[in-house]
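We examine the record.

___
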Amino acid sequence: MQYRFSFVFILLSVLFQSLSGIFGKYAASNIEEVTIFAIITNFFYLLALICLFFQALVWQQALHRYPLSFAYPFMSLMNFIVLFASALLFHEGITPFNIAGLILISLGITLLSRHKGECV
């Protein structure tokens, strides 16, 4: 049970990192003039920073419980979230190469996660 609950930290890290990228895209799309003031006062940029802050917190918890070599490959799950979010939210295209890349990433994560890592 402890192992499964601890895995939530990895998943939250992936989620916060993904949201940061999505909010960053919104921020870049909503800035008329690219100045330091416009960037730091942009609501979506601030949300991106908040997500990065929480990502750092939960990532430290994940690394406290798992070896880096086990936890880090799961960060590749961001590619799934960001690819589909970019298609849904920003109307960006998904190519066959994107799908092939996601399949390769899935295979890699599956291979690396066969050994569950040591839950500390």
User: Anything to note?
Assistant: Residues 2-113 form one domain. The chain has a mean pLDDT of 90. The two ends are 13 Å apart (CA to CA). The helical segments are 2-29, 36-40, 43-65, 68-71, 78-90, 96-113.
